[in-house]
## 1
Amino acid sequence: MWTNKCTGCCGLTANTILHPRCCCCHSKNDDIVGDNICGWKEATILKSLGIEESDVLYANFSNDVGVNPYLILRDEKWKTIVLAIRGTLSFEDMISDVCITPESLEGIGEEFGFDGTGEYCHSGMLAGAKWIFDDLKKHNRLD
């Protein structure tokens, strides 16, 4: 998809039609949030990483200022769980990137049990991290 912007959709569409993920019969997976009806975002992840659907434990493709698309994957080879956060791709991501006002970590430190006194963080990145944490709590992924 990313390397062949003009023809990538054709290959992905061919895969989705041959695979039981075509637009008309793509099953709604509660573990995937913010994908389109055809499941192209999930299909792109599966194809580009060469992984199985069962390796995607949770994904949220929502995107806005302070809202970062991310996914949780199972890596069988390394026997680990991976939280991957997408980098800058959209205009909304660029707005988050330029929100550079330092934000104190004192309150976050009190909430999560570390000393944040005198420590600061990029406010746009902190907003994205808070959103991901809240989304994980909302969807019961931290248990």
Note: The radius of gyration is 18 Å.
## 2
Amino acid sequence: AGEKMEVDTPPVAAAPPSEPVNPEDEEEDCSDLATLLDSINDKSAAEKIPILSSVLNEPANRYGPTASALKERAVYALARAYCEDNHHDEVVTLLTGTTCAPFFANVTKAKTAKVVRAVLDAVCALAPA
């Protein structure tokens, strides 16, 4: 009765990646989005808004790592453009309306929270006192 029972310990499985790695995402061509983002540098705020909105609502619906990074930059630039154009109220519509909805639906909740917080911080810094 004093014998110890041998118990097989199951092998520890590696934690699954938090996001599935899709090989197509790594090869995703986003040069058109990058070109659009770069094209706004010498434009007025009013001219930037439709260009940046088109980056976020591009028809190919790309949300790989590169496209997501470019779209994140577009959200920040769009918020700044609204502030420069004295349309601070449009930032709320930007975050809650159809412009950012597809982007937020395709990134993690943590990324969404980070972007929303950064946009609100920027608006607070740019808003008139």
Note: Residues 51 and 95 are 17 Å apart (CA to CA).
## 3
Amino acid sequence: FGSSLRPVRSLAPRVGCCARALRAFFHSPAAWDRPGGGSGARMQRAQQRPLSDLPPNQTLYVNNLNDKINVETLKKSLREVFAAFGGIIDIIAMKSLKRRGQAWIIFKEPSSATNSLKSLQGFPFYNKPMRINYARSKSDVVAKADGTYVERPKKIVKRE
């Protein structure tokens, strides 16, 4: 009786591989077209916004970052990864609830930003694949250097 039982440990590699394969399948763009292939609104937004709809920019917007990582550690790690593609002016990452899990990397040259975007798209960073896109607008640091900086009005939060 005792010799016919298999140790539980022998199933672990198969379960892990299966889970990884399922995760890769449901995170692939091909799965979005299938019924039940992803989580509705999030997948539709990702399909609606291809990488090419924003003009090339010195600033990259990176999201899907692990929000459990300390902001300072995150900035240092991002600098190590992205510095291989060119000079970095600044990295902006915040720890507020609304802004965690995302960062802006400001390069000295737009070509460096383009190279890093193409090379690091989907790169696993702290066990999560990074989603990288050009920033919607020019960062303040770049605008100040260009002389095109216009101060924005501060948002006033009304408390009642």
Note: The two ends are 72 Å apart (CA to CA).
## 4
Amino acid sequence: WDRIRVNLDVAGTLRAHLQGGAFCRYMNSTSKAREHMPTSLMGQVILNDAQKVVDDGFMKVFGCVNACVKLVIVTAFVYVENPSAIWVAVFFPIIMAIWLRCRTGSSRSQMIAMQYQFVRECNAVCTYQSTLAAYHWRGNVAEFFSKRIEQLNEMRL
């Protein structure tokens, strides 16, 4: 099954369609609309963002469907072998969902808040870059940002 899945290359096909569609949409937009979108941003959308959308979005759906099918198979097996234990197979996904929600809910909102704060700090540093350079604070700012990046990466784990 793994070889078939690799040969199907669903992620590659979806990524190619998304990248092609984004490029076609950009090319078919009016010249006025193209002026407001920098070409570097379009390159980022085609190269990076399309991959993130496919890998972190569409492909996660297949994993969820796979888990649900396995759960249905386990529930059917438990029902056939020991009908009095069916409550375990029914309540297990509910308890896991509650546990995951409690575990990831607050940390995810904290991570999003830290990302927005990081973007604001980056914008401020870029705006006042000449002032920071005049006061010889580049090293301090670089050290600060390296610590912030480490914090953000740790929160993603």
Note: The chain is about 90% helix and 0% strand.
